[in-house]
Write a structure and sequence with these properties.
The chain has 213 residues and is of the alpha/beta class. It folds into 2 domains: 93 residues, no CATH class; 91 residues, Beta Barrel (Elongation Factor Tu (Ef-tu), domain 3). The protein contains 6 helices and 9 strands, in the order H-H-E-E-E-E-H-E-E-E-E-E-H-H-H. The chain has a 4-stranded mixed sheet with strand order 2-7-6-4, with helices on one face.
Length: 213
């Protein structure tokens, strides 16, 4: 049976369970499976890049809304500034102390922190900067997309994760370990695949200091 899109995934799950009466709840199993996969999968295909724009006309231009699929930050740069300088991370306590130390003056941002679903820049921007972020994103939900990169790359993790979520609903405790073990195996393989994709692309380079003036 093909397994390349959301409809085919639901049909395959129904076939594995041999339960035609579960059609209405299988989408719920998929949603729960995606939530679990998002928490445990570490793969470079989850990383994405976008640009946020500072608007100094707003009351608090130092706060920018993060994308709705945001999980964790990889890097932050000022893309419109020569050299695309990277911003360094600060905790909320550190950034508050920093603002106090500079008397909260406005300038080109050097630091960032994460506050809920927003990124905070410091110093407060003194102009409309473009802020390029690279972040780990949630997997595009199949409920809103006919397919996604993960279903194409590893349909088995979708299948086993969805079947795992069906077991408690069906009160089939014996299948929890079966589907859980199958999902764990595929997850380990995917994480190893991700490490190879990141580190087997070529030799590691070492940054050398520039010439002394």
């Amino acid at each position: 049976m093909p397994l390349s899109n959301y409809t085919e995934l639901q049909a395959t799950v129904e076939s594995y369970l041999a339960r035609a009466d579960l059609t209405a709840v299988i989408p719920d199993f998929v949603v729960l499976a995606e939530a679990k996969i998002n928490r445990v999968l570490l793969h470079p295909r989850m990383e994405t890049r976008t640009t946020l724009t500072v608007n100094t006309l707003l009351a608090s231009p130092e706060f920018l809304d993060l994308p709705t699929d945001f999980q964790t930050m990889r890097s932050v740069r000022l893309s419109g500034v020569t050299g695309k300088p990277r911003l360094s991370f600060m905790t909320q306590t550190q950034i508050e102390d920093y603002r106090f130390g500079i008397d909260n003056v406005s300038d080109q941002p050097c630091y960032f922190s994460i506050v809920g679903n927003q990124i905070e820049l410091a110093p407060t921007p003194n102009e409309d900067f473009d802020v390029e972020i690279v972040y780990r994103a949630n997997i595009p939900a199949l409920a809103s997309n006919s397919t996604n990169w993960l279903l194409t790359l590893a349909p088995d993790i979708y299948l086993y994760a969805t079947l795992l979520e069906s077991a408690p609903y069906n009160k089939d405790d014996g299948r929890i370990s079966v589907w859980g073990s199958a999902m764990a195996t595929v997850l380990d393989q995917l994480n190893i695949h991700g490490e190879r994709q990141s580190f087997d692309s070529g030799p590691t380079t070492v940054s050398l200091p520039g010439p002394t003036p």
